[in-house]
Amino acid sequence: MPHRVVVLALDGLLPFELGIPQRIFGLARAAEPQARGRKLYDVATCSVRPPGPVRTDADFTITVEHGPEALATADTVVVPASYELGPVHSEGRLTDELAAAFAYIRPGTRMVSICTGSYVLAAAGCLDGRPATTHWASADHFQQLFPAVRVDPDVLFIDDGDVLTSAGVAAGIDLCLHMVRRDHGTAVANDVARRTVVPPHRDGGQAQYIQRPVPDTQFATTTTARAWALARLERPILLRDMAQQESMSVRTFTRRFREEVGVSPVQWLTRQRVELARRLLESTDLSIDQVARDAGFGTSTSLRQHLQAALGVSPTVYRRTFRSAAGNRA
Q: Of 130, 125, 118, which Cα lies nearest the Cα of 161?
């Protein structure tokens, strides 16, 4: 059976965010030959009230066909942002309607928020003692209102196992793609990203989107250097080599790179190599040593250390997990 995702539509919702789960999860299809094209998720939208209209922050309302009882059928619940959270936002407590709706959710259900939907999860006690994020403009208020939550305002999303939170608006796309990748592997997530015409993975965190002085336009971007590096990840790449692609000094290139991407060139390179290693582990029968060489890590020991740091698992465990998952889905 497809994984059941139920999206909770609250009055004052942002239509863009409400549509993210339907678009991302709705496009996910099995990649294995035995089950190619099969839907991997079943997405439904519900309200805290009986089926009917729900206000948005735009000049239109939407009609929701499911009431809160749909939450009892969910394997994953997604709470997008709303501008009408009332005491949830001002006092950190659920309304009676929301509390009654949350009572339908089964223990063990995966809980997800997009943007300030994190206020709802926090008010319900889902984030106590956990790391979480929200829109950078709300991070200070969120932390003051919910001191038991470990707020990280710099990241695009946080995966804490059965509870996941994203930063503002489009970061919901990053989070949903991450969930598809976690559930079904890189190939499925990349296919969804291509069909949605978005990057399968964005680098950096929220810091790159916070208002700041505009960088000096006399300097070129670092796009050429990144494209150059991506074409040769299996080879040694020095910082000065990347800087030369843009005719910059290493110091200027490093500063400019961080302004544009949100992380250092070394961090970015490591992330790209980890993503390449994941694809090779999932889609090829190459040995671990060969994957390490093709991904630019050189040795299996280096690959193991980087994959463990990024994903918390060894290359062998990662390959076995996704190969087993593919077999089960078939």
A: 130
More confident residue, 195 or 201: 195
SS3 content of the chain, % helix, strand, coil (to 5): 50, 15, 40
CB atoms within 10 A of CB 310: 15
Residues written for the chain:
330
- How far is it, in rounded angstroms, from Cα 245 to Cα 229? 10
Give the mean model confidence (pLDDT) for residues 131-140. 94
pLDDT given for residue 134 in this prediction: 95
To the nearest 10°, report the CA torsion of 284, 290, 294, 299.
Answer: 140
Q: Tell me the C-alpha distance between 1 and 20, whole Å.
A: 22
Of 179, 89, 104, nearest to 135 by C-alpha is 89
CA geometry: angle 185, 278, 178, nearest 5 deg: 45
Pick from 33-37, 174-178, 226-230, 318-322: least confident? 33-37
Question: Can you tell me which residue has the tokens 């710099």?
Answer: 154
Region of 247 (left: φ > 0; alpha: ψ -120 to 50; beta: rest) is: left
Q: Give the pLDDT of residue 49.
A: 96
Residue 212 to residues 208, 209, 259: CA-CA distances in angstroms? 9, 8, 10
Q: Indicate the SS3 state at residue 165.
A: strand
Tell me how far CA of residue 21 lies from CA of 158, 175, 256, 264, 324, in angstroms: 17, 10, 34, 31, 26
C-alpha–C-alpha distance, residues 110 and 230, integer Å? 35
Helix (H, G, I), strand (E, B) or coil at 27: helix
- pLDDT score for 34: 72
Whether 327 has a pLDDT exceeding 70, the answer reads no
CA 75 to CA 21: how far, in whole Å? Answer: 14
Q: What percentage of residues in the chain have a pLDDT greater than 90?
A: 71
Q: What is the pLDDT of residues 236-281, one digit of tens each?
A: 999 999 999 999 999 999 998 988 887 899 999 998 999 899 889 9
Q: Which two tokens stand for residue 239?
A: 């910082």
Burial bucket for residue 161 (CB in 10 Å: 0-12, 13-18, 19+): exposed
